[in-house]
Amino acid sequence: MYATKIKMKPGCNHSRNLLEIDSVYIEGCTNPGFFKKDVLHDFLKENPGTIQVKISPYPNVISAISSKGEKYVRSTPNDYTHDNLLDLPRE
Question: What is the tens place of the pLDDT at every residue in 37-65?
Fold first, then answer.
């Protein structure tokens, strides 16, 4: 499955902060669409390595928890200086 676009929280459309992602569009599954980041977090805890960002080098999407306990998702680190999820098209 691939993460192909993101939706930011209201008023945060140009943000470069992963915590301000509201939902991520997932394709390659039986019901493609936008999924809230906390739903994806829980899914990835149970199914690690099943979703990649659809941008080369196709890093895995992984679950994370902020210092304030907020569930979110990010991509595995690579040579980019920022997270690949933030380079996806936004709606």
Answer: 999 999 999 999 999 999 988 999 999 99
Distances (CA, A) of 53 to 37, 42, 59: 14, 17, 6
Give the predicted TM-score (pTM) of the model.
0.93
Sign of CA dihedral 70, 12, 86, 32: positive
Q: Assign 3-class secondary structure to the chain.
A: CEEEEEEECCCCCCCCCHHHEEEEEEECCCCCEEEEHHHHHHHHHHCCCCCEECCCCCCEEEEEECCCCCEEEEECCCCCCCCHHHHCCEC
Tokens representing 70 are 């907020």
Domain residue limits, the chain: 2-81
Per-residue pLDDT at 80: 66
Residue type for 10, please?
A: P
